[in-house]
Design brief:
- The structure is a single chain.
- The chain is of the alpha+beta class and 303 residues long.
- The protein folds into 2 domains: 12-106, Phosphorylase Kinase, domain 1; 109-241, D-amino Acid Aminotransferase, Chain A, domain 1 (2-Layer Sandwich), CATH 3.30.470.
- The chain has helices at 52-67, 80-86, 94-97, 122-131, 170-177, 179-202, 254-260, 280-298; strands at 12-16, 20-24, 29-34, 39-40, 43-44, 75-77, 101-105, 108-109, 114-119, 133-134, 137-138, 148-154, 157-159, 165-167, 205-216, 222-225, 234-238.
- The strands form 5 sheets. Strands 8, 9, 12, 15, 16 and 17 form a 6-stranded antiparallel β-sheet that branches.
- Strand 2 and strand 3 (29-34) form a beta hairpin.
- The protein starts with 11 loop residues before the first strand and ends in a 5-residue tail after the last helix.
């Protein structure tokens, strides 16, 4: 598969994120291209991670197909031949888009990330350990790091101008979107997460937390959009190594984070751009971690 850091397709580019490039096909459809770019501490690295874009796209496509009876979604196709058939201008670029591209329905994105936490970890654990709260709201006492939360906690977030996620209360979400839309997005979030969590557990993966995005079409239909329960949007933990009360190993860019850790390796990098050059062994280990997540989850192999 072609390694891609930046796409250049014969369509109108309307957004270029840290990982994805978004193109306009027409008034009803978009093309999402997941490159092999990788970021850490909000800085994009110079070196791409082989197969990362394919893992993100094909993991999302696998979930969209599996969850299609539970929630409407934006995917039309993630198959390169079907995409080229629908958008003939892409025919000369079939090799570079194969595996990493998704043709989608177009809609207006709700400006909220629907985060749901099934286990207490990361920033949520740090806030709880300090103050017993999450987004300022009190949680029960006696919870442990990486402990399972029943029921899962719906913890919406919004984007600050800098691009960092900011946890907000459900009350604040209602102020932004209205009570009815908030209730529907929370309902869909819980349905998708609990179903996905159970599927992943059966395949040896704990999805500790994840974030979803939703959009609305011109006709008013609410769709699950963007990526779904991938190693970039979720914490994937191996079930066979899970132990409550401590941090967990994860199927994501943890080898990259460990090498870059700005607290333990301050002389290596201070967290600001430009980033240091990644050693080949870190790039390789990160790629293998993504591919193993896909294999465990789906039972299939991308490489």
């Amino acid at each position: 598969m072609v390694l891609m850091t930046t796409s250049d397709l014969p369509l109108k580019l309307i957004a270029r994120g840290k990982v994805r490039d978004v193109y306009e096909v027409d008034g009803e459809r978009l093309l999402l291209v997941a490159t092999d770019r990788v970021s850490a501490y909000d800085v994009v690295m110079d070196e791409p991670i082989p197969m990362k874009g394919a893992v993100l796209t094909q993991t999302s496509a696998w979930w969209f197909r599996k969850l299609g009876t539970l929630v409407r979604h934006h995917m039309i196709s993630a198959d390169a031949d079907e995409i080229v058939g629908a958008v003939p201008a892409l025919a000369p670029h079939r090799e570079e888009i194969a595996g990493r591209t998704m043709l989608c329905k177009r809609g207006t994105v709700f400006p909220i990330e629907c985060v749901i936490r099934g286990y207490l970890s990361g920033s949520a654990w740090r806030e709880y350990a300090k103050s017993g709260t999450l987004a300022g709201e009190k949680l029960p006492g006696g919870l442990k790091e990486s402990g399972r939360l029943d029921p899962p906690i719906f913890s919406p977030a919004t984007k600050a101008e800098s691009g960092h996620d900011e946890n907000i209360t459900v009350g604040r979400m209602k102020e932004i979107l209205g009570a009815d839309v908030t209730a529907e997005l929370e309902r869909l979030t819980r349905i998708v997460y609990t179903s996905g969590r159970d599927v992943a557990l059966a395949n040896g993966i704990i999805i500790a937390d994840t974030k979803f995005e939703f959009g609305r079409t011109k006709s008013g239909e609410i769709l699950l959009i963007d990526e779904v329960m991938t190693p970039d949007s979720s914490r994937f933990w191996p079930l066979d190594g899970y132990r409550e009360g401590r941090p967990q190993p994860s199927f994501d860019k943890q080898p990259l984070r460990d090498w870059l850790d700005v607290e333990r390796h301050a002389k290596r990098w201070n967290g600001d751009a430009p980033p240091p050059k990644l050693p080949p062994e870190v790039v390789d280990a990160t790629s293998k971690r993504y591919l193993e997540a896909y294999r465990r989850l789906t039972g299939a192999s991308l490489a």
